[in-house]
Design goal:
Blueprint: E1 6-9, E2 15-16, E3 32-35, H1 38-41, E4 79-81, E5 88-92, H2 102-115, E6 120-124, H3 128-140, E7 143-149, H4 154-162, E8 166-170, H5 174-188, E9 191-192, H6 200-215, E10 223-227, H7 232-246, E11 256-262, H8 267-273, H9 300-309, E12 313-317, H10 319-333, H11 339-353, E13 363-367, H12 375-384, E14 390-393, E15 396-399
Parallel strand pairs: 5-13, 6-7, 6-9, 7-8, 10-11, 10-13, 11-12
Antiparallel strand pairs: 1-2, 1-3, 4-5, 14-15
Length: 400
Amino acid sequence: MAPIAYLECTRCGQRLSADRPQTVCPKDGGVLYVRYNLSDLKKNFKLTSLAGRAPSMWRYAEVLPDAEPVSLGEGFTPMLASREFPKVYIKDEGLNPTGSFKARGLAAAVTMAKAYGLRKLAIPSAGNAGSACAAYAAAAGLEAHIFMPLDVPQANRVECETYGAHVTLIDGLISDCARAVADRKEKEGWFDVSTLKEPFRVEGKKTMGYEVVEQLGGRLPKAIIYPTGGGVGLIGMWKAFAEMEELGWIGAERPRMVVVQSTGCAPIVKAWNEHKSSSEAWREAATVAAGLRVPKAYGDYLILDILRKSDGIAVAVTDDEIMDALRHWGRVEGVFAAPEGAAALAAYRKLRATGFFSAQDSVVLFNTGSGLKYLDVIDKQKQSAPAQGSRHIAGIIGPY
Ligand SMILES: Cc1ncc(COP(=O)(O)O)c(C=O)c1O
Ligand SMILES: [Zn+2]
C-alpha cells in the first residue's frame, strides 16, 4: 500500500497532511482527494501486476492508503455480459458484503478511522451506507451511530441493529439525518463519516473504476451508467481513471459518464439541464429507490464537472420505469437488482430510444445493490402493480 503524499482540496487546491484525521477543506468546505506519488509507482505497478491477487478491492493496494485493511471481502464483483444486449455489461455490486457498493467506501473509511485511533463513528444514511458502516465498525471494534430516515428499507435497520450499532430513525430525509449528526457530533465525540465529508470513502469507491478497466481487459467502455444520490461512485471512478492515466494503464480517453436519478428526486438532472455548475435542494423528495433520495449532493459541483468533461448526460426515470426494469432484469438476466441499480437499465433503455446510444456502444450498467435488501419495498410495489407472471387472487399471490 502507498504512503499518502497529501490531501488536496478539489475547490482551491490547498494541500493538507494525512497524518491526522481530516474532514473537508478548512477554507472553503471543498471535498478532499487523497494524492499518492503515482510517478514513483508507475515503474512497478502495472495492470499485469494484478494477476493472481486476491479477488477483493485491496488487490489495488498500491493506490489505497497505507493501513491494515478492515476487510469483509469487498470488491471484485462480477462484470456480467448482458443476455439481452450484446454490448452491455452489468457490474453486479449486489454481491458485496452488506449487499451494496457502499461496502467499498466504508471499508476504506473504517480502515483509516481505525488507523487514526478514532473510536466512535457517526453517519447519516439513506440505508445501505448505514449498513456498511455498522458492519465494518463491528469488524474494527469501533462504535457506530447510524441515522436513517424512519421509512428506511427494513433490511437496513435490522442489519444495523444486528451489527450492534446505535440506530436513530429520523422522521425526515438523509439531509435531516445529516443535521442530527452535525448537531451532536462534537458533544458526543463522534467522527463524521458522511459522504464526502472525509476523504476515504471515495478511495474505496474508486476501485470500481479500476475493476471496470481490469475486467474489460484494459479497455474502457464507451459509457458507464451510474445511479446517483451523493455521487461518490461516479466521483470515485473518475478519480480512478485519472490515476490510471498517470500510471500509464490508459490514455486520455474516458467513458461517457451517465447519471441516473428518479423523477421523484432529480437535483443533478435539473442542474444539468439548466447548465448549472451546482444543484438546488430538491423539495419533497420521494422515490422507491431509497438511495437516490438525496435532495442535495455535497459533491454536486464535482458530479456536474464530470458530466461535462466526459461528454456525459443526466437522465431521470420514473419509479414505474424503475420497477419495470427491476422485474425485467430478474426475468431476463437472472439478476435481482436494487431499485437504484434497476434505474440504470431504465436509463439505458431511454438513451437507446433517443439515439444517445446505439446497439454497438459498449455500456456498463451499475447494479449498485441487491434486491434482497428491498423485499418489503418491492413486495409493496408488486401489490400495487402485479408483475407479469403472477397475479392477485383474493389476496393470494400465485403463478399463472
Ligand atoms: C443501492 C444504492 N445505489 C445507489 C446509491 C447512491 O449512491 P451515491 O450516494 O454514492 O450516489 C445508494 C445510496 O444510498 C444505494 O444504496
Ligand atoms: Zn479548499
